Amino acid sequence: MTLYIKNMVCRRCVLSVEQLLQDLGLSPARVTLGEVTLDTAPTPAQEQALRAGLEALGFDLLDDQRQRAIEKVKSLLIGQVQSGEIPEHFSLVDFIGKAMRRDYSSVSKLFSEVEGITMEHYFILQKIEKVKEWLVYNEHTLSEIAFRLGYSSAAYLSSQFKRVTGMSPSEFKNNYPGHRRGLDKVHNH
């Protein structure tokens, strides 16, 4: 049985959900961003406790099929960004179409209707948050960051960063080192 959970965006989220499931006596076969696979279905009491526990952690158990699909797309995109290994010619069309086993245009239209932004813009926002993280923690040069996130050049990354944030990467790094929003705060944009 698969459960879909809204707002799971990081490794810490996975660990929190795993702990909650164990506390409720539900042993998950697999827990990934936005998705939990259980060997057996929870009892009504366990499901009620799970909903309450997830809500207390800032998550929601999803019932609506459309919302489940959107959360799966978000989890896929966040996972791709978190991998830090996006190829230069990465194609959202191919990636999402293959992962969702659905026509990209229908998934993209649904995403825009539910989220109020395009899937492409959501993906860019996730990448920019990853750039901020790496800039703040001095993990890579801008060229390395551009390469790792699939940008054709550091100049293109810098241009997109400025369009989204209103400042260049160096301005951000010099003036706002402690003000990075966590990736888990981006999901509502």
Structural write-up:
The chain folds into two domains: 2-63, Alpha-Beta Plaits; 67-185, Homeodomain-like (Arc Repressor Mutant, subunit A, Orthogonal Bundle), CATH 1.10.10. 58% of the residues lie in helices and 8% in strands. It has nine helices and four strands. Strands 2-3-1-4 form a four-stranded antiparallel β-sheet, sandwiched between helices. A hairpin with a 2-residue loop joins strand 2 (28-32) and strand 3. Helix 6 (119-136) crosses helix 8 (154-165). The protein is globular and about 55 Å long. The relative contact order is 0.12.
Provide a concise account of the structure shown.
With 189 residues, the chain is an alpha+beta fold. It has nine helices and four strands; from the N terminus they run βαββαβααααααα. Helix 6 crosses helix 8 (154-165) and helix 7 crosses helix 8.
Task: Tell me the CATH superfamily of the largest domain.
Answer: Homeodomain-like
**Number of separate helices:** 9
Mean pLDDT: 88
Distance between the termini: 30 Å
Strand elements, count: 4
What string, H for helix and E for strand, traces the elements in order?
A: EHEEHEHHHHHHH
How many separate structural domains?
2
Major sheet summary line:
4 strands, antiparallel
This entry's quaternary arrangement is single chain
Beta-sheet strand percentage? 5-15%
Q: Give the CATH class of the largest domain.
A: Mainly Alpha
**Helix percent band:** 55-70%
CATH architecture of the largest domain: Orthogonal Bundle
Q: Pairing-aware structural class of the strands and helices?
A: alpha+beta
Q: What does the overall shape look like?
A: globular
Which fold name corresponds to the CATH topology of the largest domain?
Arc Repressor Mutant, subunit A
Q: Going across the major beta sheet, what is the strand order? A: 2-3-1-4
Unreliable segments of 5+ consecutive residues: 180-189
What Rg do the Cα atoms give?
18 Å
